[in-house]
Specification:
Length: 106
């Protein structure tokens, strides 16, 4: 089974760390229980307060104030997949969508 490391990072000033931790735990459960058995891709997911705290080798999922033209997007820069998730009332749903899409098709 292929393993990728994911990081949920908020670029939103004063974003409640417990909100980030709660969503990271739910996303981890989704990957472990629902995605990995079928897609054969495992993905430990950790939350980080700042992008600078993220270890090398993680694929960042960044919560940002605005994503031009979409609620979220996943891209690739120099072979490094990453996702941008627009902060909104439904940001956790967008994070789930972008995470699964990124794991299925980096």
């Amino acid at each position: 089974m292929l393993t990728e490391n994911l990081a949920l990072v908020s670029e939103i000033e004063d974003h409640d760390p417990s909100d980030l931790a709660r969503v990271a735990a739910a996303l981890q459960r989704q990957v472990t229980r629902d995605f990995a058995p079928i897609w054969e891709v495992s993905a430990p997911l950790d939350g980080f307060a700042r992008l600078e705290d993220m270890p090398v080798g993680y694929w960042p999922m960044m919560i940002v104030p605005d994503v031009q033209g979409a609620a979220g997007i996943h891209l690739d820069k120099d072979g490094q997949p990453y996702a941008l998730i627009e902060m909104s009332d439904s940001w956790s749903l967008t994070a789930s969508h972008e995470m699964l899409e990124m794991l299925a098709d980096p």
